[in-house]
Structure formats: C-alpha cells, structure tokens
Amino acid sequence: MKVALIQTRTPATHEAALAHVLPMVAEAAAAGAAFVATPEGTNVLQKDRALLLPMLKTLEADPVVAGLRAAAIEFGVWVLIGSALVKREDGKAANRSVLISPQGAIQATYDKLHMFDVDLPTGESSRESATYEPGDRAVTARAGELKLGVTICYDLRFPALYRALALAGAEVMTIPSAFTRPTGAAHWEVLMRARAIETGSFVLAPAQGGRHEDGRGTYGHSIIVAPWGEVLAHLDHDEPGVLVADLDLTAAAKARAAIPALANARGFAGPLPLS
Is 112 among the catalytic positions? Predict the structure, then answer.
C-alpha cells in the first residue's frame, strides 16, 4: 500500500494553514498514495497561549479539518490529520489526531496523552499542560488495509503505549510531530527506529519543519520506518515537502515471528526501591 507523509511549516492562521497543506495533499494523491498523514498542529501553530486560545474552533467548525475532509473526498484517499489544535466540547483545548475516510467521514480521533512539559538545556521550555487537556485513552483504528496505532509527538518517549497498541493489533504506528530542533537532532531517528523494532511495526512520522511565524523552530526530517527497523524513506531537511513509500503489509507479521518479543514478555515482581 502506498502512503505519503506531508512535512509542513504550518502558519499562525487557519486560512493560511489550509492554503499551505492542500497542494501537498494533492501532490501525494497524484503520486498514488492511498493514505496521507500530516504533522502535529496541521491546522494552526501559535505558541502564544493568549493568541492561540481565542482562535481555536471545535472539531466540527475548524476550517482546516473541513478542508481536509473535502480533500479526502476529492482525491479518494484516507487522510490522517496528525493533529488539529481544537476547542473541546467542555471549552478546554485538545491536541487531537483525526482520521478521515475517503468519503470524508471522521473515523477516529485521539487526544494526545502525554504533555511536553520540559525545560531544555538550551534554555527553551514548554508547558503543553498549561494549554491542552491530555487525553485518557489509547486509540487504534483501521484505514483500509492499515491497522493503525494513533499517537502524537511526545508520546514517542513512552514505549509502554506502543506495546499496548501492538498487542491490540496495530501494525502501523503514526507519530505526527512538531519536534524541537535540539531533541530532534539528538533523538528523532533513533527513537522512531526503536519503537518500530520493539513492536514489529511500521512507523509513520510526518513532521513540522523550519522556522515558524510564531518564532518556534521545528526539526522536520519526516521518516518512514519498517518493522525490522530499516528506514524506508526520509526527508533529510526541514523544508515543506511530500514523502512517499510503498509498505509491504506482511512485514509486521514477519518481524513479529522472527523476534516474538510481544509474545515472550513476562510479568515480574519488584524491583524494590533503592535506598
């Protein structure tokens, strides 16, 4: 099955964000992709909380979500909005993945579980929990032949989540991201390959890249990893672009049979806390 990842540099308004991403979705469809995934924050990026929160729409009212639903219908493709920053039904904000069918229906949603609350050695800091309400459930979904485990960015650092998704039947882990440049340079590829190897799964990681209107810098380097850990395709830069690869969907079962770590894991007691 041919899949495509969209690497964006999402602007700070919904209207500009839609104009930015739609031509790349069209390019992916023209290349024959049946499944197209976009990064975290596809609909708008604005790190100033006071500016962002009044802009957010509900999922149903968001113009970028609506535009990508229309694009899914037009091109007859599955679209995973890696995440849309939206207003929840209770008025709080959510960082939400949205899976759209070729008929334009919303098939599944996932709210990011793990909040990136960190102070980096470079002096950069992030407090996602100050803006977004975390999700409380892991999500699997089918997109045609693909058995997806749906995650977002910082979730990457919590391997127990991916094990749970694999045990639930997921064979393709989606990890749309807006990685910082320092952590991307240090950890991006090695963590993506580790999650693929540990679970015997494909990893699809579309990324934000470059210097954004709100001043943030993101790493780019969108990547597709096979279940044995080899990199099938990647963008070696932080510019907007489209990455396409053919997935052999039998590869997950082969990798899991060769290294049956999911089946061989055992429960254990302890350890006792160190004094």
Answer: yes
